[in-house]
């Protein structure tokens, strides 16, 4: 049985709401063509049922026999780090921010900075902007650079001039885990074990991606840092789950790593603050225990929101008990948590395995992903299967140059919220080992699932090579989304919003993309092919690519 007193206290004791815990802002102020502005009246829906995205996915994986992109980091640098330098009266990184975004509602303010919603001027897209009080305090956001996973919050851009810093991030409309649990409980009167397992599995997938692909531990996993892309409509509806706040993340074993919330820290990190994937597994156990019972393990007491409030509660009695329990763990007096208050036997067993005091006896995040408890969220009616639209879409995978895949990838990288949900569900089905990437064997399984009439004559290996933009032998989530992307299944206004966002990353101050602007995206050795691609897009041969030409070109790439 879920105890809800924890969630009541979470909102009552000197609580400063975070940006992801707020309702959707008012409709953005539009500075876009009237035809688009008239149809785009609100930010992405919080509900799957009303989302503009209806489940489309596809499009051409582009075969490149004549050229390989030298490094996908050029794409990431472009979309995350900078736009083309401003040459107008407003110059500098901060001027670029004000030229691209309009700050809207202030969501939160605290010791570390201020958080706002904002609108991207070129597209009307709603984003979150953080302004740290310490202008050099961007380590949290730098940690997110280069991480491409459906289970990690996206950082779109960082602007700083040495005096002020703005960080542009994905807007997580659902809120943090506790807010969503409370909302679901208030709506339905209960929170099902199946829903909890569906959410928690995604948390483990995000951590496993971090551990396996980057050899990093998060070091501050807790319910407040687990975000959902929308509020669920009911216990049957499990939204996309993301991990945020990477300010304490560090390479495994780094003795200089910043420490996270003591309530969720593993006991072995108190005497020697050296964090590992095993310490993240402990944090998962504390979070899961609290999620299922409403109280903290070992203390068996409701939590208090905010570390300062927790310390002050009952004259410091609770924090003294916390450290006393840690001392008992270190001395060997306590070996594991008492999980008898958890009703579901599978959930109880997984929580017990995560909360083993001895790190070597603690179940790893990767192994936990295969625990029987997660079968509760894998019933046949919950699985996502490829349908005929996907099969039909794959007929065109063999066309074009890998260069064109890069253009699609630039657009796909702008997607957020509910518009990524279907991709995430299909991704989860085919990432068999949960390592955060698709290897050739996993892609071959996906390709082989298509019936013969829907497959072109190309082999799975040839298609894989075509869409592996950085040629590293695996597909990350951005490459996968670019491969599956189909703008025809988006509301036209939403499609225009994402196209404008991608276009604004390329264009200069004149509102158009020059040949020079375009060439900076690619390596010098690829210039002849880049020139050919530019000429394909510049249909009026003006020497510049405007938004209309860019949009039409991307739509042509996605035609079946």
UniProtKB/TrEMBL annotation:
Requisite cofactors: Mg(2+)
Superkingdom of this protein's organism: Eukaryota
SUPFAM superfamilies, A to Z: EF-hand (SSF47473), Protein kinase-like (PK-like) (SSF56112)
GO molecular function: ATP binding; calcium ion binding; protein serine/threonine kinase activity
Keyword match tRNA processing: no
One Pfam family linked to the record: Pkinase
Domain spans labelled Protein kinase: 101-374
Gene3D superfamilies hit by this protein: EF-hand (1.10.238.10), Transferase(Phosphotransferase) domain 1 (1.10.510.10)
Keywords for this protein: ATP-binding, Calcium, Kinase, Nucleotide-binding, Serine/threonine-protein kinase, Transferase
Residues annotated as domain EF-hand: 418-453, 455-490, 525-560
Family as reported in the entry's similarity comment: Belongs to the protein kinase superfamily. Ser/Thr protein kinase family. CDPK subfamily.
The protein, known as: Calmodulin
């Amino acid at each position: 049985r879920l105890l809800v007193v924890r969630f009541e206290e979470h909102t009552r004791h000197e609580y400063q709401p975070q940006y992801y815990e707020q309702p959707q802002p008012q409709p953005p102020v539009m500075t876009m063509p009237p035809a688009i502005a008239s149809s785009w009246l609100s930010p992405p829906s919080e509900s799957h049922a009303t989302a503009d995205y209806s489940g489309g996915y596809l499009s051409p994986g582009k075969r490149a026999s004549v050229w390989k992109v030298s490094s996908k980091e050029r794409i990431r640098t472009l979309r995350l780090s900078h736009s083309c330098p401003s040459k107008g009266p407003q110059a500098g990184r901060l001027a670029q921010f004000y030229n691209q975004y309009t700050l809207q509602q202030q969501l939160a303010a605290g010791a570390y900075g201020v958080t706002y919603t904002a609108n991207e001027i070129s597209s009307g897209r709603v984003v979150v902007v953080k302004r740290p009080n310490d202008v050099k305090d961007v380590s949290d956001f730098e940690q997110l650079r280069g991480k491409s996973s459906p289970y990690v919050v996206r950082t779109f851009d960082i602007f700083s001039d040495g005096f002020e810093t703005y960080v542009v991030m994905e807007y997580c409309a659902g809120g943090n885990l506790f807010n969503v649990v409370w909302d679901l409980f208030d709506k339905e009167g209960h929170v099902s074990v199946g829903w909890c397992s569906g959410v928690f599995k995604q948390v483990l997938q995000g951590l496993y991606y971090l551990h396996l692909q980057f050899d990093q531990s998060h070091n501050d996993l807790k319910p407040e840092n687990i975000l959902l892309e929308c509020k669920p409509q009911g216990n049957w509806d499990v939204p996309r789950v993301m991990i945020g706040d990477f300010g304490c993340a560090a390479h495994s074993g780094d003795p200089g790593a910043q420490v996270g919330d003591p309530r969720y820290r593993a006991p072995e990190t108190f005497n020697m603050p050296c964090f590992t994937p095993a310490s993240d597994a402990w944090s998962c156990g504390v979070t899961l225990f609290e999620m299922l019972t409403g109280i903290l393990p070992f203390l068996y007491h409701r939590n208090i929101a905010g570390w300062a409030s927790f310390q002050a509660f009952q004259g410091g009695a609770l924090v003294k008990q916390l450290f006393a329990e840690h001392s008992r763990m270190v001395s060997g007096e306590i070996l594991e948590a008492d999980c008898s208050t958890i009703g579901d036997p599978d959930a109880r067993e997984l929580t017990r395995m995560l909360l083993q005091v001895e790190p070597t006896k603690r179940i790893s995040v990767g192994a936990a992903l295969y625990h029987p408890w997660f079968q509760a969220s894998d019933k046949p009616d919950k699985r996502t299967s490829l349908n005929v639209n996907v099969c039909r879409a794959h007929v065109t995978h063999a066309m074009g140059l890998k260069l064109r895949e890069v253009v699609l990838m630039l657009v796909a990288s702008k997607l957020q919220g509910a518009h990524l949900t279907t991709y995430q569900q299909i991704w989860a089905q085919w990432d068999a080992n949960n390592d955060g990437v698709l290897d050739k064997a996993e892609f071959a399984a996906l390709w082989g699932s298509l019936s013969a009439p829907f497959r072109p004559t190309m082999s799975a290996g040839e298609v894989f090579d075509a869409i592996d933009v950085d040629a590293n032998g695996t597909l990350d989530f951005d490459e996968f989304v670019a491969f599956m992307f189909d703008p025809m299944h988006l509301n036209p206004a939403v499609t225009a919003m994402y196209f404008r966002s991608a276009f604004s990353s390329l264009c200069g101050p004149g509102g158009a993309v020059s040949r020079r602007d375009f060439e900076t995206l690619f390596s010098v050795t690829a210039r002849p092919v880049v020139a050919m691609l530019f000429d394909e897009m510049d249909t009026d041969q003006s020497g510049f690519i405007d938004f209309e030409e860019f949009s039409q070109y991307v739509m042509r790439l996605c035609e079946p």
